[in-house]
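DATA SHEET
Item: assembly model
Revision: 1
Owner: S.N.
Input lines:
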Amino acid sequence: MARMIRVLVAKPGLDGHDRGAKVVANALKDAGMEIIYTGLHQTPEMIAESAVQEDVDIIGLSILSGAHMTMFPRVMELLKEKGADHIVVFGGGIIPAEDVEKLESMGVARIFGPGTNTGDIAAFIRNRFSDPE
Amino acid sequence: MTDRKRFEEAEGKYYDALDDGDVQDLEFTTVSGEPVDPLYGPEDTADLDYLDDLGFPGQYPYTRGVYPTMYRGRLWTMRQFAGFGTARDTNERYHYLLEHGQTGISVAFDMPTIMGYDSDHGRSEGEVGRCGVAIDSLRDMDILFEGIDLSRITTSMTINAPASILLAFYLCAGEKKGTPFDRMGGTIQNDILKEYIAQKSWIFPPEPSMRIITDILAFCSDHVPRWNTISISGYHIREAGSTAAQELAFTLADGFAYVEAGIAAGLDVDVFAPRLSFFFNAHLDFFEEIAKYRAARRIWAKRMKEKYGARDERSLLLRFHTQTAGCTLTAQQPENNIVRTAFQAMSAVLGGTQSLHTNSMDETLALPSEKAVMIALRTQQMIACETGVINSADPLAGSYFMEARTREMEEKAEVYFRRIEELGGVVKAIEQGFFQKEIGRAAYEYQKAVEAGKKIIVGLNAFGIEGEQIDIPLLKIDPQVETHQRESVRKVREARDNDKAARELERLRAAAAGNDNLMPVILDCARCYCTEGEIIGELKKIFGEYREPLFL
């Protein structure tokens, strides 16, 4: 049997808005993925560490406090330092379009904005890890 | 034929016709998922007693409003929540809003301020001034209110875990302008229970947090009598995904928990209860929201009188601020949010709110731009000046539908009160994750309903525009804000009398370890420019920090 896709859902920074993170975590779980949820108020260091320890395939970062331009690059940097930059990073939150472009050009796989269908997130992850024919 | 007989005949005919009629294949439920009947009639309100259940406005049980004159006497306060960047940036926004007819100030703090970190702390990196204004010390508070007369305006501060400190900064800023404490009016949110439940900005564990709150209640009763000491908030519970009934029940349960804590701390209920106020959400379902506000007033008045023995009439009044529901705004076709917000604001006014914030159309994308916030403020002014809804108090009272829905809302809340009691009270229920799980479940159910198309959101899962280009101006926070603010807090520490600051911080630690009221010593710390992070740091040494049990 194929290994389940392991997803770390993480809340970096001081922001406590966890509705989106929890809804996405539940939806991905229902879509058959294995979910590790970090809880709130995580530093990028804590997130990178959990990602490596839990041997996840992908990290979803949820940020609604405007700190995304600090948190995303930091998590990516730390993954690189740990030799774990094979771990895909995606995210969501209150993130203006021009920052979405910047983040995606830095290597963030995808930013999902408000109103996203959770089915689209599951499909995106699945496509990412489907075996290339 | 008797009247009764004629009624039954007509009713039977109506229901037959209803059964025969074509009905669309839709779910006729509220946004909270509650079924709604096709019609309400005299039988739904047959047991309603006007004086016992409704009363005149300004009379027990206040279902019809807390004041006899309602909006004829005074409109609700138009209070737009605002804060970004430095104190200087936000001060300019306040002057702008006041010049355009806003009647109260509402401060949005940035995350480091909310969580008790100074701007130069490592955990503040990337967060300074981002989603609110950065306030590190009395110096920033002075700048925030430059040119604003604190004896004439009331200020609401959305601050919880560090509320005592920000209140101290504010009172000291007023004191420096020559305004005595007893002439300053305003609100601190100071509602820590809903932080554990929904908003998740806590610092200390529940027990010391409740002690700080009762210290504030006692201090303000004596020295700052015009201050609303807790704004018991359903807003965040709703934004986290609860239903309307959960918002109502959990918020009032929190309110009762504060009342019990105050009484347990030896305070007379009538000394502090008149300064408790509430903060509710105005969500999409127009009538459900109005029923919620009406039920809230009735439940509060009855319990305060019957269970807690309040005798002062002011202890029975549920006065509330309302904010339209941020979580209902769409990033798609953002201009539509102007209309959504207008409907929501109207429900708050018909529900008898004392104060109102209308969201700006761009808030799913960024903090509001000047243009967007102006339209939001104008929305309130249109409701007040153009629609005529202010002429009569509680205009929907007596409607079979509205009274039945109000009663239903009350009954649902009572079921939750019993459940919370069974769990051992609010704090115990938090520890068991009761609220968190209830809210999480409701949020996920709602998401599934939207994704299945059972709930329609215009512009999102219906009536979308293919390849829509969003073209509205957004507020940008200058990245220099953080650098500037870090330097500024360092300068404050250099310029002050550091021996004195250290002595005051030590006094604070001793007070925290003992039982003395913390407010006077926090004020002394504020006066000698101790920073928020330093004050919180001392308190953490004694009180420790809260760790959330994880519930997905």
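QC remark: The longest strand of chain A covers residues 58-63.
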